Amino acid sequence: MGKHILIIEDNRELAQLLELHLNDLSFEVDIAFDGVSGVTRAEAHPYDLIILDLMLPGLDGLEICKRLRSSSSFVPILILTSKSSEMDRVLGLELGADDYVTKPFSIMELMARVKAIIRRVDSMKENEVKEVSDIISAGGMVIDIERRLVTLNGTSVDVTTKEFDLLLHFARNPGRVYTRSQLLDKVWGYGHEGYEHTVNSHINRLRSKIEENPTNPRYILTVWGVGYKFADFRSEGG
Fold first, then answer.
1. Orientation angle between helical segments 86-94 and 61-70, nearest 10 degrees
2. Domain residue extents for the chain
3. The pairing of beta strand 135-138 with beta strand 141-144
4. Per-residue pLDDT of the chain in tens (238 residues, 90 and over written 9)
5. Architecture of domain 4-126 in CATH?
6. φ, ψ of residue 89 in degrees (nearest 5)
7. C-alpha dihedral, 62 to 68 to 71 to 74, nearest 10°
8. 45-48 long-range contacts, Cβ below 8 Å, gap at least 24?
9. Any idea which fold 132-236 has?
10. Of 55, 98, 44, 56, whose CA–CA distance to 75 is shortest?
11. Residue 21: exposed, middle, or buried by beta-carbon count in 10 A (0-12, 13-18, 19+)?
12. Residue closest to 112 by CA, chosen among 22, 210, 207
């Protein structure tokens, strides 16, 4: 596949185990065992994915995630967390991480997540190449696909990487209803049962940023008993 992955993990046995399995999938792998060397590598090379432990010596994973996103780096980030650190998981997602896996985890599940993220990113790149316009306008909202920017009535909206991906998927398909499982598959790249709460939390946070009244949304609408859809403004002339 020719993909290059960086593992930032201070547990050497775990990092080397992940490297072994990723090599079996034909990924090229680099490893950093502390935060400082990890962020140095991440900023110096165009990786296709970073697997990032949150608890690291020198510089923690949340700070690494923050630094990468502040530098406009859109490399996918899969964070590794402990089950007891729910707040860190939430902060990681808010700072722009694409997905998370809690320790202890199944190697098979982690490999499935890695492949899903790679597939999703490749698919998004293909869609962006095919997109006739780099700009989507809908009801006062403007989405700049190439620059990955969102404005609402001329005001910039600060969204995370995953929130942007979710919003873009909705905006590309106005009026179409998606179940939570379908959104997991389309936006996150996997559809494992039990992860529907991930969709709910991202939609709630996105609504808090783009909706004037999140309890009575104008853009992302709930279709009761089914899922969600993006309002179709085409009948209103944009």
1. 10
2. 4-126, 132-236
3. antiparallel
4. 579 999 999 999 999 999 999 999 999 999 999 999 999 999 999 899 999 999 899 899 999 988 888 876 678 999 998 766 677 777 777 777 888 888 888 899 899 889 888 888 787 766 655 555 688 898 899 999 888 899 999 999 988 888 898 999 999 999 999 998 888 888 877 655 556 777 888 899 899 999 999 999 999 999 998 999 999 887 554 4
5. 3-Layer(aba) Sandwich (3.40)
6. -60, -45
7. -120
8. 45/4, 45/6, 46/4, 46/75, 47/4, 47/5, 47/6, 47/75, 48/3, 48/4, 48/5, 48/75, 48/76, 48/118, 48/121
9. Arc Repressor Mutant, subunit A (1.10.10)
10. 98
11. middle
12. 22
Task: Quote the pTM value.
Answer: 0.64
